[in-house]
Write a structure and sequence with these properties.
The chain is of the alpha/beta class and 263 residues long. The chain has helices at 3-21, 24-27, 40-45, 72-81, 100-106, 123-131, 145-157, 197-203, 221-228, 239-242, 247-262, and strands spanning 52-56, 59-60, 64-65, 86-90, 113-116, 135-139, 161-166, 181-185, 211-215, 232-237. β4, α5 and β5 (113-116) form a beta-alpha-beta unit.
Length: 263
């Protein structure tokens, strides 16, 4: 069993437990549920922003603990105040050290927030809305094309947008006209090897007109400039900042260098 299969296995158990403890009708009574969502698509296309979706991530299955001391409010606020086009907040606990409370804390920021989660049930989409998320992630590797469409339509009914994450040509069939953003994950979720060439290869195969973002393995200004040449509008970056003693400062320095390179 690979890491992804292990995560899906315990995620199904988690969701079943959550459904028993908190029905969807209760989630719909949460304060954030009626909050109008922000559009990640709009923020990604705003010229004055960086295109960076800055991620708060304490740990990962491949790297272990990345930064166990960082404060989610301090870090995400620095991200938001210094040009992030969006925030990504992990809510998976066992593998990534995240929680719903992290996303709720980050919600003070007025930029779109992605609930970074392994969604295997429509219940989690309602959960995301109740937490204050603006965007959900659907991972092609763990869903059927039919599920992707069904879950996307549910997200839209709740006012949220969808990033569909793909890893290879075999997952292109999961893309449908309702998906808001296509994300290419440069990390193979089975082996956890990373290569930006995954984004390069898939760039011309993704339907024209789709907003594309690249995820994982982005470490430098040169990486962003390289990916922009292949039509990418967004860049999900987490570990590059989170592995530093002060992720907020690391992000500010990175954005300053990016802005200087753009002059």
């Amino acid at each position: 069993m690979n890491i992804l299969e292990e995560i899906v296995g315990y995620k199904l158990i988690e969701v079943a437990q959550s459904k028993g403890e908190v029905p969807e009708s209760a989630l719909e009574q949460e304060p954030f549920f009626l909050r109008p969502a922000l559009s990640l698509k709009r923020f990604l296309l705003e010229a004055e922003r960086t295109g960076i979706i800055a991620e708060f991530k304490r740990q990962s299955p491949s790297k272990g603990v990345i930064n166990g001391a960082a404060d989610v409010l301090d870090v995400t606020t620095a991200y938001a105040n210094n040009g992030a086009s969006g925030l990504s907040v992990l809510t998976d606990g066992p593998s990534f050290g995240g929680s719903a409370e992290d996303l709720v804390a980050a919600r003070i920021n007025e930029v779109p927030i992605l609930r970074k989660e392994f969604i295997v049930d429509p219940y989690q989409i309602t959960e995301a809305k109740a937490m204050g998320a603006d965007v959900i992630l659907l991972i092609a590797a763990i869903l059927t094309p039919r599920q992707v469409k069904e879950y996307t339509l549910k997200a839209h009914e709740l006012g949220m947008e969808v990033i569909l994450e793909i890893h290879g040509e075999d997952e292109l069939r999961h893309i449908n006209d309702f998906v808001d953003v296509v994300g290419v994950n440069n990390r193979n979720l089975k082996t956890f090897e990373v290569s930006l060439e995954t984004s390069v290869h898939l760039s011309s195969l993704i339907p024209s007109g789709m907003i594309k973002i690249s995820e994982s393995g982005i470490h430098s200004i040169a990486d962003i400039q390289y990916l922009k040449r292949y039509g990418y509008k967004g860049f999900l970056i987490g570990e590059n900042f989170m592995k530093q003693p002060d992720p907020a400062l690391a992000f500010m320095k990175f954005v300053a260098a990016l802005n200087e390179a753009s002059v």
